[in-house]
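In this section we walk through a basic example: taking a raw amino acid sequence and producing a predicted 3D structure, encoded as discrete structure tokens. The instruction is simple. Fold the sequence below.
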Amino acid sequence: MSDATLFEQVKDEANRVDPYPLFARLRETPVSRQSDGTYVAATHAAIGSLLHDPRISSETLPPADRPKTGNPISDWIVKPIRDRITDTHRPFIFRDPPDHDALRKAVMHEFTQERVQLLRERSHVLVDEILDKHAGSTSFDIVDDLAYPLPVTIICELLGIPTEDEPQFHGWATQLATALEPDTMADTEKRSENSRTFETISEYMTGLIKEKRRHPKDDMLSGLAVDGVPGIPRMGDYDLIATSILMLVAGHETTVNLIANAMLALMRHPEEFARLRDDPSLAPRLIEEVQRYDPPVQFRTRRALADIPMGDVMIPEGADVILLLASGNRDPAVFTNPDRFDPDRGGIRHLGFGGGLHYCVGAPLARFEAEVALTALARRLDNPRLQADPPPYRPGSALRGPKHLRLSVDGIRRA
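The resulting token sequence is shown next.
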């Protein structure tokens, strides 16, 4: 029987640097009941099964509960209405079919091949501009200097958010990303802070959507607000606001971690960094291995809609279920030498982008942004080495990555 406190240990910041030994212990029992009543799926097979099980729901966010203001009209009339609107118009990663399917289809309709290709080309320009600004430096923070500014600029340009508004999104996105953390869902104070942040960013998006409808441009937000998708109703304002916030947060928070985790792996395996420098065509395989070996999204939470038998364990209706994606990615039943970083693996069936109905919409963006960033770093950094190993980590356990990844370099070549 697995230790029923293991997942609590995974969430503990003391284990943020290396949670993988805990995952190995959790895999001893494919699905285990934790002491708080949560069920954790830790093997590749169990996770894969549950990802495709219609008895598993993504509607896991607790009911909205905005902080009271002390004003009776606001607290007893306005607040319940606004809470109800929030509950019925969640971002689509927290929705089940059929609502999820319609919203996802609308977003996918805007990911045209032409638009994605233009953003890929734009990424090359942005990375070179960023590195040129640091030419001559002997220190470089992968997170602050590249992994954050690249994806946030790309997602803002995709959505059509003015460049001058980019800086204010950092704090908003960082705060809202905590909604994926199990402890946040049970913490009234943290939920209140998320509600306030959501209100602030919603007000901004409301104004921007109105502007897009008055003066549409060739961007995703204009397309969603004005054109819609043939065969399904056009998104209403509340769903459009939730979707745009989701795209903004998810569109860069996870990619920041992907780039940083990849560069950390390369610094710990300098022979692979040298190979990438000599052969940039290795980048796609390298990125898929990072998504297996050290993925930015470590787990997602679901809820059982019915009793679900999983081997010797019965997941009861209503139970919270943790799909421990990063553990499945190290499952020795699927991957040979799973704790080894090996970009030459073939046919990697990793869970880094999830699976099933909720497979990551932004996977193409994340892949090419990381590819462009890593190949440029390999080409232009002279003798990079870690200033600290392990680096400091961000507090979250669901979205896991370094808070900073500072390198010492002999120089940064110009493009």
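Looking at the output, two observations stand out. The chain has a mean pLDDT of 90. The first strand starts at residue 31 and ends at 33. In the next section we compare this with other chains.
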